[in-house]
Amino acid sequence: MSRKDPEVKESALQIYDAQKRPEWTFPSFVGKSVPGEKKPLHRLVDKDKQDENRAKSISECKKVWGNYTGSGLESDEYPCASTREGPPRATTASPSASSMAGTTVQAGNGSTRCTHGIAFLTATPST
């Protein structure tokens, strides 16, 4: 997912920040480490657990930003809800950016045959 691709750059930057500047993500604390770049993520196919991960992300966003309904933003998470590591490492993003990034991740999972529990890394090249 490239930070120069206008369709996913917002989410790619979020992933980059989580990996390179984890203190910029929420919950924020010194010494925080986010998996995905050097320590692998693991695919989660259980929809109920994905929904639980997503609910954690929304809860964290509400703690940080309060009621953001009507702001044009939605809660977005990294690692994605579809990983065992899942949130809570959350931020807000535009719905289109969040949706396109999710579609990109799901397409990658399908094309690489990412099944439940398989380990993988993420990258956000600038090109």
- What ranges have pLDDT less than 50 throughout 5 or more consecutive residues? none
Helix count, per DSSP?
Answer: 3
Strand order of the largest sheet: 1-4
Q: What is the helix/strand order?
A: HEHEEHE
What does the largest sheet look like? Answer: 2 strands, antiparallel
SSE topology sketch:
Elements: H1 9-20, E1 41-42, H2 47-65, E2 74-77, E3 90-93, H3 95-111, E4 119-120
Antiparallel strand pairs: 1-4, 2-3
Task: Sum this structure up briefly.
Strands 1-4 form a two-stranded antiparallel ribbon. It has a two-stranded antiparallel sheet with strand order 2-3.
Please explain how this structure is put together.
The protein is an alpha+beta fold. The protein has helices spanning 9-20, 47-65, 95-111; strands spanning 41-42, 74-77, 90-93, 119-120. Strands 1-4 form a two-stranded antiparallel sheet. The longest helix has 19 residues, at 47-65. The mean pLDDT is 75.
Which descriptors apply to this entry?
3 helices, alpha+beta, 127 residues, two-stranded antiparallel ribbon
